[in-house]
Amino acid sequence: MLLERFCKRVLADIIEAANGNAQTYHERYLQIFQLMQERNDDLALAFDDIRRSNAIQKLTAMRVLGLLIDDEFMRFRPETRSLIDELVSIAKPDFRP
């Protein structure tokens, strides 16, 4: 579900970049290429090699990227939410949702 949410958002961004009327086709292509590289890094950070030892890191990345919505987030224990919220506040300046 979260991976689908991520992919849907990326595809919408690609469509928007592809339809950009103010740019040449080459500029749009370069924008899409850069977008895909950046989003692939985000995808890896949030979803690659998920395991118990890095679950907090992955959940934090999902939260920063806006993939883990409040209703889903509230299912976690208060201690887990508190830790993730603290990490999100630290990580937020380095991320681009």
Question: What is the gist of this entry?
Answer:
This protein has five helices and no strands. It has helices at residues 2-18, 25-47, 55-64, 70-73, 78-91. The longest helix is centred in the middle third of the chain and has 23 residues, at 25-47.
Shape: elongated
- Distance linking N and C termini: 17 Å
Provide the succession of SSEs: HHHHH
Largest sheet: none
The total count of strands amounts to 0
Question: From the helix content, strand content and strand pairing, which structural class follows?
Answer: mainly alpha
Percentage of residues in DSSP E strands: under 5%
Helix content class: over 70%
- Low-confidence runs: none
The residue-averaged pLDDT reads 92
How large is the radius of gyration?
16 Å
Number of helices: 5
Give a verbal description of the structure.
Helix content is 70%, strand content 0%. The protein has 97 residues and is mostly helical. Helix 1 (2-18) runs antiparallel to helix 2. The longest helix is centred in the middle third of the chain and has 23 residues, at 25-47. The protein is elongated, with a radius of gyration of 16 Å. The mean pLDDT is 92.
Layout of strands and helices, then pairs:
Blueprint (H helix, E strand, L loop, with lengths): L1 H17 L6 H23 L7 H10 L5 H4 L4 H14 L6
Helix pairs in contact: 1-2, 2-3, 3-5
Summarize this structure as a short list of keywords or feature phrases:
single chain; 97 residues; mainly alpha; 70% helix; elongated
